[in-house]
Amino acid sequence: MDDLEKAILISFDESGTVNSALKAQAVAFCQQIKESTSICTLCIERLCYSKLVQVQFWCLQCLQELLHHRYSSMSLEEKSFIRKSVFSIACLEGPDDNHSIGVLDGPAFIKNKLAQVLVSLIYFEYPLTWSSVFLDFLPHLNKGATVIDMFCRILNALDDEIISFDYPRNAEEVAVAGRIKDTMRQQCVAQIVRTWYDIISMYRNSDPELCASVLDSMRRYISWIDIGLIVNDAFIPLLFELLLVDVLPEQVRGGAAACLLAVVSKRMDPHSKLSLLQSLQINRVFCLVADNTDSEFVSKVSSLITGYATEVLDCYRRSTSEDTKGVSTELLDEVLPSVFYIMQNCEVDTQFSIVQFLSGYVAKMKSLSPLKQKEVIHVGQILEVIRTQICYDPVYRANLDAFDKIGREEEDRMTEFRKDLFVLLRSIGRVAPDVTQLFIKNSLAGAVASSSDRNVEEVEAALSLFYALGESISDEGIRTGSGLLKELVPMLLSTRFPCHSNRIVALVYLETITRYMKFVQENAQYVPVILTAFLDERGSAGYSSSIYNCGLYIKGNTGI
C-alpha cells in the first residue's frame, strides 16, 4: 500500500479514531495528487489493480470531476486514454486476467460510479467523437451476467444523469439529451431492445435479479423509443407471461408490470392510444390485486391498473368521435371495479391522484342524463371510496378526544386532506343527488350499528359527509327538504349514537344540525327535538367544555 492509498483510507475514515490533524493532512495530500498532470494514469492504474473500494471510489470520483470540469482543456490523448480504459474496465477487458475484476465484482456503489464516469464521456462525446459506444458494448454482453449488469447500470445512469425529465435540466442539458436520444433511435435502440428480449428470455428462471435489472432499464426507455419495438407479437406476450406466471419471483413480475405501465403511459393521439389499450387486454391482471395487498408486487400491479384507467379516461376526454368515446366507456366500465378496490384496499402510487381521477370521471357523467345503471353503481362505489378515505385512523382516537398535541396535528392534517374529497362529494351530489343522499342515509344507519371498535370513526365520517353535502344543496332545497332530506334531517335529530360523548362526533353532530337549521325552522314540529338535542348529552350538557361552548354558540345563533 503506497502513500496515496493510505491517505485515501484515512480521508474516508468514519470511525472517529483517526486524529483530526492527520485526516486533514491526508485530505490535503489527496487534493494535491488530484491536481497533478499524471492523475489520469494514476487513477486508471489503481482501478485496474487495487482491490480497496475506497481507492476505487476515489479514483472514479476523480475521473468524473476531471471530465466535468476540465474536459475542454484536456488533450486528445488524455481523452482517448480515459475513454478506452474505462470502457475496457466496464467490458471486462484488460492487460491481464485480473483486470477490472475488483471493480465489476465490487459493491453496487462502485459499479454505479463507474457507470456515471462512462455517462460523463457519453455526455461530451456521443455521437460526434464516440459514435459507436453502444454498438461497441453489445458484443461484450455474451460474457455473461457481470457485463450485462454493468450495461444496465450505464443505461440507468444515462437516464438519471441526462435524459429523464424527473430532474431539473438547463437548456444545454436538454439539448444534449435530445441529441443523444435522436442518435440512439437511429443507430442502436432496435439492437438494444432485441438484446433486452434475449436476456430476459435467457435469464428469467436462472437469474431473476439480473432479469429485473433489465426490465428496470427497459421501463425507463419505453417513453421515448419507438413503441412498435415493444408492442408487438414477441415482447407483449413475454411481459404478460412474466407478470402472470406466479412461480416467478415477485421482482421479475413487478418489473414486467412496470414496463407495461410505461407502455400504457406512452404519449400518443387518443385514437392510437385507445387501439393500444384495447390490444393489451389488461383485464388479465385484475385478479392479481386480490392477493396480498401489502406486497410490493401488488402495489406495482395496482399502479398498472390505475395508470391504465387514467389513460382510458384521458382518451375519453380528448376524443371527438362518438365511437371512440363509446369504446373508452366500455374499457372504463371494465376497469373501474378494480380501481375502486385498489383505492380502498391497496397502497396507491403517489403519482396517481384518487381525487383527480374520480373528479374526471364525475365530470364525464355530467354529460349523461339520466345516469345508466352502471353509472349509478359507480357513483355508489365512488362515495364508498370517499367515506373510506375520510375516516380517521382509530389509533388517534384518544388523542383526538383529549385534543392533545398529537390530536390537534392529526385533526389539522385530516382537515386539509379532506378538502378535495368534499369538493368531489359536492360534485357527485349535483350529478346524482338521490344516490348521494341515500348513501349518506345508509352510512348513518350502518355507523350506528357498527362494532364499537370502529363506531367513533364511522359515525364521524357519516356525519361529515352529511355536513359537506349541505354545500351542494340550495337554501331552498334545505328549507323544503328536497329528495331524502325530509327523512335524513329527522333521522339525524332523533338518533343517539353510542359514541356521542366523543369530542369529534359531538362537534360534527352539532355543526351538521346547524347546517340544516332552515329545515327545522320550516318544520316547527322538529323544534322540540332539536332543543332536546342541544340540551342533553349531545349538546350543552356534553362532558367536554369545547362541546358545551359549541352547543351554546350554535343554540344562540340559530334563532330558536
Structure description:
Helix 9 (145-163) packs parallel to helix 12, helix 16 (296-318) packs parallel to helix 18 (354-365) and helix 18 packs parallel to helix 21 (405-431). The protein contains 29 helices and no strands. With 560 residues, the chain is an all-alpha fold.
Labels describing this entry:
elongated; mainly alpha; 0% strand; 29 helices; 560 residues; single chain
Per DSSP, the total helix count is: 29
Taken as a percent bin, the fraction of beta residues is under 5%
The outline comes out as elongated
- What is the first-to-last residue Cα distance? 91 Å
Quick description:
With 560 residues, the protein is mainly α. Helices cover 71% and strands 0% of the residues.
Secondary structure blueprint with pairings:
Elements: H1 3-12, H2 20-34, H3 39-49, H4 53-70, H5 76-90, H6 101-104, H7 108-125, H8 133-137, H9 145-163, H10 171-187, H11 189-203, H12 208-221, H13 235-244, H14 250-264, H15 270-280, H16 296-318, H17 322-345, H18 354-365, H19 373-390, H20 397-402, H21 405-431, H22 433-449, H23 452-469, H24 475-480, H25 485-494, H26 503-515, H27 517-522, H28 527-535, H29 545-556
Helix pairs in contact: 1-2, 3-4, 3-5, 4-7, 5-7, 7-9, 9-12, 11-12, 12-14, 13-14, 14-16, 15-16, 15-17, 16-17, 16-18, 17-19, 18-21, 19-21, 21-22, 22-23, 23-26, 26-29
